[in-house]
Fold this protein.
Amino acid sequence: MNDYYDVALRNYSYIFNFEEKFEHKDTRAWMTKNWTISFYFCGLYMILIFGGQHYMQSRPRFQLKGVLSVWNTLLATFSIMGAFRTAPELFHVLKNYGIYHSICIPSFIELDRVAGVWTWLFVLSKLPELGDTVFVVLRKQPLIFLHWYHHITVLLYSWFSYTEYTSSARWFIVMNYCVHSIMYSYYALKAMGYHPPRAISMLITTCQLCQMIVGCTVNIWAAQYIQEHQPCHVSVTNIRLSIAMYFSYFVLFARFFYKAYLSQDSGKKSKTIVSVPSQYARNNSEKLKGQ
């Protein structure tokens, strides 16, 4: 335990009790045995959201501003905490060991319980994040493909990657926590009735696009290390799935960015267009109502 503290305190000024007691072997054993449950969750999710849309067709939309404010505030707080508890490990590895180690050696599980527990919480968080779509359905906002495709694929990939202790995941997790910290904080402010400047929404989408580019780059580096026969704790299957996922996200978010900020119609909108799919869908809905 003392050796652990010597390592951990280089990155963290304080270690919480639940972080200290975290046992990655127990969580991995459970996730390895049960990760396919995520498919059932996704199936139920699809039934509920599209069934919910059908149910809401003949019913008035819910406002849910108070609940939405609390929901986004909780997710923003969780994301900020996750970013602060995982980013130090990535920076420490990059500074002291380099790119190869950060991509191929899974020390975030073996040597760092703080990053380990927040990695596990990250994976689990993809399940409650499906609740974002509940608000879309109940508020009768158009449910675009990017929204539900993103939620489903992230959930499935995250749960699968945890069973493999995918070492490159430290990059994906830190990036996602950081982007979500900004994104859900923006959501929360909007739900509370504030009007952050349009530049913030553009910044969020730009960060999302950068996230996809870095994700693809990390996977390409991992593939190169494997081709060079260097030990790398990333499976070829995982690399293929991850590149396909990140590239598809990049295409969809780039298309969204163009429609929201660069097309001629985007300049005519009187309301701020938010970079998140659900908010963009709401603005589209308002536009259609005026036609």
Summary: Residues 226 and 232 are 6 Å apart (CA to CA). Residues 2-289 form one domain.
